[in-house]
């Protein structure tokens, strides 16, 4: 970019009202450190847990897990809002009691995880505001957030899905014992999960009915709809997917393998992902045959297309001893923390973090608003 060209204004939205608020804060800090500030002008806006927007200057904001505590946006120092009146899309902040425009927003990077962030709600707001944004649209975000409906989409395109049952809130409230019986029919061990939460929040591995009942209660603290899955014997393999430019097909990274290496984590839970760096490691490319690597990359792109995703997604599989891939889930706004698997896999595939951020913003700016 030459000195005569205006920088591209990027609204970074992070924080939010979901349980993944602190991870979103760390993701935003990571992106701010990586973004090309000769090309882009980042405008960070943190959203408190009660939904208030506050502007945080890019040169002042920083969040990490260095002290072992989860960061949080707790105060509204400089209130901020989108102003879309008169056909413009400006970021307006309140300073000394006066509205001040920070200029027209060119693109939004919604670094929001979980409900009211990556579930289609914010995406719908940005569509109405006619603002380009990074990541999948309304439908893909909603389907990708719901572990029930994503499984239906995967099965529809022929991907192998493990056995599961869904505890719908109304049916379960009328007859919880029937729900427990249906889950037990799958056979222990089981994984109990909130249907619409991420970062492994509220997920419990259980081996008996007492544990099942407690785990369902815990999952329902995060979401009244619960998915219960059979444990799949297999290695955990992930692929990072990027949308193609124009009419080009989506691209999959080299697959990575999550190895839980120590600590008290029985599986790759919230603590292993974000709090205990020694609890897990990523092997990329995963130790698989060339044929298996090609197959999992192929299936990752099929999963991406199955939910009509755009921009980016991470697709997670189990690789069974029989040599089959069983799809676990798709994450349409995977973490961007320094130890997150999505950017690590692209780095191993030849796309370093700063270039990955630029690629995602470029894809968002290329994409038309509205039906496409």
From TrEMBL:
Protein's pathway: Cell wall biogenesis; peptidoglycan biosynthesis
**Main localization of the protein?**
cytoplasm
Which InterPro entries does its entry note? ATP-grasp, ATP_grasp_subdomain_1, D-Ala_lig_Van_CS, D_ala_D_ala, Dala_Dala_lig_C, Dala_Dala_lig_N, PreATP-grasp_dom_sf
Q: Where in the cell is it found?
A: Cytoplasm
Physiological role: Cell wall formation.
The family line of this record is: Belongs to the D-alanine--D-alanine ligase family.
Protein name per Swiss-Prot or TrEMBL:
D-alanine--D-alanine ligase
Origin organism of this chain? Micrococcoides hystricis
List the top taxonomic levels of the source: Bacteria, Bacillati, Actinomycetota, Actinomycetes, Micrococcales
The encoding gene is ddl
């Amino acid at each position: 970019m030459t000195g005569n060209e205006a920088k591209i204004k990027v609204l970074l939205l992070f924080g939010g009202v979901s349980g993944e608020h602190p991870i979103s804060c760390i993701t935003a800090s990571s992106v701010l450190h990586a973004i090309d500030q000769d090309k882009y002008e980042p405008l960070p806006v943190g959203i408190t847990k009660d939904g208030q927007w506050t502007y945080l200057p890019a040169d002042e904001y920083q969040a990490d897990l260095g002290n072992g505590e989860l960061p949080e946006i707790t105060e509204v120092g400089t209130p901020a809002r989108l102003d879309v009146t008169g056909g413009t899309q400006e970021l307006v902040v309140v300073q000394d009691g006066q509205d001040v425009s920070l200029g027209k927003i060119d693109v939004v990077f919604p670094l929001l995880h979980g409900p009211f962030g990556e579930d289609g709600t914010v995406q719908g707001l940005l569509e109405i505001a006619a603002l380009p944004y990074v990541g999948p649209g309304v439908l893909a975000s909603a389907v990708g957030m719901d572990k029930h409906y994503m499984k239906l989409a995967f099965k529809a395109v022929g991907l192998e899905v493990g056995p599961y049952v869904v505890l719908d809130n109304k049916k379960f409230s009328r007859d919880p014992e029937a729900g427990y019986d249906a889950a037990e029919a799958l056979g222990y061990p089981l994984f109990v999960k909130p249907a619409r939460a991420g970062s492994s929040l509220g997920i419990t591995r259980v081996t008996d009915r007492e544990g099942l009942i407690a785990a369902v209660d815990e999952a329902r603290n995060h979401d009244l709809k619960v998915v219960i899955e059979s444990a799949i014997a297999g290695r955990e393999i992930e692929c990072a997917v990027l949308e193609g430019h124009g009419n080009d097909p989506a691209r999959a990274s080299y697959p990575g393998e999550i190895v839980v290496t120590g600590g008290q984590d029985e599986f790759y839970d919230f603590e292993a992902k974000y709090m205990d760096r020694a609890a897990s490691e990523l092997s990329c490319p995963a130790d698989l045959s060339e044929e298996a690597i090609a197959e999992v990359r192929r299936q990752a792109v099929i999963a991406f297309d199955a939910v009509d995703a755009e921009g980016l997604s991470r697709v997670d599989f189990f690789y069974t001893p029989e040599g089959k891939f069983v799809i676990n889930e798709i994450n349409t706004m995977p973490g961007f923390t320094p130890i997150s698997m999505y950017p690590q896999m692209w780095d191993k595939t030849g796309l370093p973090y700063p270039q990955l951020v630029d690629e995602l913003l470029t894809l968002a700016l290329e994409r038309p608003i509205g039906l496409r």
